[in-house]
Amino acid sequence: MKRVIITGASDGLGLELAKLFLEKDYEVLSISRRNPNLKGVIHLKTDLTNEDDINKTAEVIKKDFNLFAHLINCAGVINIKPINSLDYKQTEELFKVNIIAPMILTSRLVDLIKDNKADIVNVGSTVGFKAYENQCAYGNSKWAVRGFNENLRLELKNSQVRVIGFMPGGFKSRFVEKHTGTKANLEPYMEPKDLAKFMIQILELPKKLEVSQVIINRKSV
Fold it and tell me: pTM value?
């Protein structure tokens, strides 16, 4: 049985990835605050804004789950506010979850990742390519994900580790509502299950093929 580690597997894209990996007979490790409550998923409750929590989870993985094929950093939060009303604590939490947590978790596991010849997928956003009004903090965190991917790929260039930047546009989830309290019309948005299928297709490519970055937008009609 193969194993995959997914942060943010309790909702949205992470949850759909967990379901599909289970169908492919993977053992799924979920790293998040909330338990996805899927049969076959091993949940490691972790506050991704807390350094000690991340370190403890990394130690559990090293001790009990040291063989794995993929690390997918999928957890994220959003903050939609104009530049003149940014809140320090909210912005700090956003950067901790969106970029600091994947950096630190990857750092703690990088030796295992190299030993396992595993893949790293960092989920960013199309917001990391273009500025959007009222998304200064969120957008900057996603631009940072792109920078992390580039540096990580350089650090691991002499290994057999693939670093994949997965950059979707808007897809159907409770992401915005959960973090802003505002409901959005999700009808034109992409299906997270379709995105999950696509990511897995990329991961199933021969190991000599590295999709360094993929941008996925919904088709305008």
Answer: 0.92
